[in-house]
């Protein structure tokens, strides 16, 4: 199952055939500005494999988002993350620089929120981001999320956590 198409986007599972697009997206310094580092081509292949494992285990993960005409936009979807020692469902999104600023991340994230409401047994959806990533925070706010805590998991600086009850 996939989130329903939005007015401008459709979702599909990631496959190994998406390696060039995903390596370009996850290797882009602007897209990955708030991550510890950009992903190599090998790490992008691992990203695809991780999502395929998520599809097999949970029925969802991060999906490819593309225009209704089939142009690659990025990825968006649902993954389980550790937030201060508690397992929580996260909506995550990466949109290519050429597509940013058009509301596409918000459109995709809202569709994934709605998918989680309908198909996932959880009462909360979170978004986790670097505290300086205001654009990502605005996307989360636009789909109804509010800041609830900082995540101090891992060795990086605290990450901001926004949440919505679903």
Which key phrases capture this entry?
166 residues, alpha+beta, 3-stranded antiparallel beta sheet, 31% strand
Task: Show the helix and strand layout.
Blueprint: E1 9-12, H1 19-26, H2 41-58, E2 62-67, E3 72-83, E4 86-95, H3 104-119, E5 124-129, H4 134-142, E6 146-151, E7 159-165
Antiparallel strand pairs: 1-2, 2-3, 3-4, 5-7, 6-7
Strand order of the largest sheet: 1-2-3-4
Q: What is the beta-strand fraction?
A: 25-35%
- What can be said about the biggest beta sheet? 4 strands, antiparallel
Q: Helix tally?
A: 4
Shape annotation? globular
Which structural class is indicated by helix and strand composition?
Answer: alpha+beta
Mean pLDDT level = 96
Uncertain runs: none
Gyration radius (Cα, Å) is 15 Å
Number of strands: 7
Helical content class = 25-40%
Order of helices and strands: EHHEEEHEHEE
Termini, distance in Å? 19 Å
Quick recap:
By secondary structure, the protein is an alpha+beta fold. It contains 4 helices and 7 strands; from the N terminus they run E-H-H-E-E-E-H-E-H-E-E.
Question: Could you walk me through the main structural features you see in this protein, from its secondary elements to its overall organization?
Answer:
The protein has 166 residues and is α+β, with helices and mostly antiparallel strands. Helices cover 31% and strands 31% of the residues. The protein has 4 helices and 7 strands; from the N terminus they run βααβββαβαββ.
């Amino acid at each position: 199952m996939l989130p329903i198409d939005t007015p401008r986007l459709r979702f599909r599972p990631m496959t190994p055939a998406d390696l060039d697009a995903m390596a370009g997206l996850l290797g882009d310094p602007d897209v990955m500005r708030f991550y510890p580092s950009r992903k190599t081509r090998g790490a992008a292949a691992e990203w695809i494999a991780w999502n395929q494992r998520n599809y097999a285990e949970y029925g969802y993960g991060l999906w490819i988002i593309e225009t209704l005409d089939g142009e690659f936009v990025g990825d968006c979807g649902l993954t389980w993350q550790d937030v201060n020692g508690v397992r929580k469902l996260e909506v995550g999104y990466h949109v290519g620089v050429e597509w940013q600023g058009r509301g596409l991340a918000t459109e995709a994230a809202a569709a994934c929120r709605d998918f989680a409401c309908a198909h996932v047994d959880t009462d909360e959806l979170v978004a986790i981001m670097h505290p300086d990533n205001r654009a990502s925070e605005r996307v989360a706010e636009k789909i109804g999320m509010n800041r609830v805590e900082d995540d101090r998991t891992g060795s990086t600086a605290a990450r901001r956590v926004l949440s919505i009850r679903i």
